[in-house]
Design goal:
By secondary structure, this protein is α/β, with parallel strands linked by helices. Helices cover 42% and strands 13% of the residues. It has 3 domains: 201 residues, NADH-ubiquinone oxidoreductase 51kDa subunit (Rossmann fold), CATH 3.40.50; 72 residues, Roll (Ubiquitin-like (UB roll)); 85 residues, de novo design (two linked rop proteins), CATH 1.20.1440. Helix 6 links the parallel strand 2 and strand 3. Helix 1 packs across helix 8 and helix 5 crosses helix 8. The structure holds flavin mononucleotide and iron/sulfur cluster.
């Protein structure tokens, strides 16, 4: 069994998932996705079938399928590859989802920086309308009416969070909503809405094409199928890799020419930093999960500079709605500056750790909840390096 490119980057015939779905009852489509064990690839790993089932069961004649193509996590660029090279597969997945939940409208929320992809995506959509893969009575199935529009994102990282994304789609400032209610009941324009990552939708199309059993042969029991990894940093072959879920960090480093690394940041700025002695950890929901970002740090890297880089990002990107995140990120950044100058006492460092843990618990959305992770993992695993700075010498 090949371990590279098993599911997405292969030559399964176009539209085979859609043609199979055409013959199925919507409940059976959801059942097939459930049997596959597919979990969302946008980061949180929510079971895709459960989301689809809840939206299918929600009251309302108007429902939406939203493809989250905001791709704002630092170090992530795999959705861009799917959108540019596999756009048909993305739209196929959205169209299958529309049948499963009974949606008539589809929206791709496209990262603002990917504006250059709009013309390509529109031309693929036009071709699909011509082929009756979109529109009314799709492929002759009566009352299967569904079309897709592209909506350009607003440029803020938090707009990738699904409720902020919906706010942004509705023309409001992109700020996370309180939950409940959840988008599956009260989403875009107050209608039942599923928000799925680009890769999740592509995988769902493959599940329909080849079946749940075939899909489950890849990955682990709790993390089935493959994962796209956006690999960057200190390695010989950066790029986008499709590998089975559950691969160890060590094996991934062999694939990408990253042997000898000092640490790997798993999950981008909002993920955590894994030191070399833990490279036997697996990239899977049950161990070291990632939405796809893998950043490799060679031996020469200054880990405090890494922490500073991520924390500056969060200070910039916090939407400011809740105090733990708005205030906490600035205090952590200030702590890093003190560490750099060698003026951070052990007592203050312990306060920073406690603050980070409070942010994880008390922030309103995933941005603030995950913002301290990189910092906390770096001070845990690189304690000596981080504390080893000489304090400034003052003239007597
Ligand atoms: C700050 C923040 C940014 C996010 N950015 C993205 C993103 O760019 N793309 C994405 O698919 N999910 C992103 N998510 C996760 C979404 O909220 C949501 O869980 C995901 O789109 C659900 O799709 P899935 O079930 O297919 O993973 C982000 C979450 C947070 C908290
Ligand atoms: S955690 Fe941060 S980004 Fe999320 S709502 Fe609070 S301030 Fe905004």
């Amino acid at each position: 069994m090949s371990t590279r490119n098993p599911i997405l980057f292969n030559d399964i015939p176009a539209e085979s998932g859609l043609r199979r779905a055409l013959e199925m009852h919507p409940l059976d489509i959801v059942a097939e996705v459930r049997a596959s064990g597919l979990k969302g690839r946008g980061g949180a790993g929510f079971p895709t079938a459960m989301k689809w089932q809840l939206a299918a069961a929600a009251e309302g004649a108007t429902k939406y399928v939203v493809c989250n193509a905001d791709e704002g996590e630092p170090g992530t660029f795999k959705d861009r590859v799917l959108l540019s090279d596999f756009a048909d597969l993305v739209f196929e997945g959205m169209t299958i989802a529309s049948l499963a939940i009974g949606a008539t409208g589809g929206i791709v929320y496209l990262r603002g920086e990917y504006t250059y992809l709009v013309a390509h995506l529109e031309s693929v959509l036009a071709r699909r309308r011509q082929a009756n893969l979109l529109g009314n009575d799709i492929l002759g199935r009566k009352d299967w009416n569904f079309d897709i529009v592209i909506h350009l994102g607003s440029g803020a990282y938090v707009c990738g969070e699904e409720t902020a994304l919906i706010e942004s789609l509705e023309g409001h400032r992109g700020e996370p909503r309180n939950r409940p209610p959840f988008p599956v009941n009260t989403g875009y324009m107050g209608r039942p809405t599923i928000v799925n990552n680009v890769e999740t939708l592509c995988l769902a199309a493959r599940v329909l094409a080849r079946g749940a059993t075939w899909f489950r042969q890849y990955g682990t029991h709790a993390s089935t199928g493959s994962k796209l990894f956006s690999v960057s940093g200190d390695c010989a072959k950066p790029g986008v890799y499709e590998l089975p879920m559950g691969i160890t960090i060590a094996d991934l480093l062999v694939e990408v020419g990253g042997l000898g690394a000092k640490a790997v940041q798993v999950g981008g700025a909002s993920g955590h930093c894994v030191p070399s002695r833990l490279f036997d950890r697996t990239l899977a929901f049950e161990d070291a999960p990632t939405g796809g970002s893998i950043i490799i740090f060679g031996q020469q890297r200054d880990m405090l500079a890494v922490a500073r880089n991520f924390m500056e990002f969060f200070v910039d990107e916090s939407c400011g709605q809740c105090t733990p995140c708005r205030y906490g990120n600035s205090v952590l950044l200030d702590g890093i500056e003190r560490l750099e100058k060698g003026t951070c006492s052990i007592r203050h460092l312990n306060e920073l750790k406690a603050l980070g843990e409070t942010m994880e618990l008390a922030s309103k959305c995933g941005l603030g909840q995950s913002a301290p992770k990189a910092f906390l993992s770096i001070i845990e695993h690189f304690h000596d390096e981080v504390l080893g700075r000489e304090p400034p010498h003052f003239a007597a």
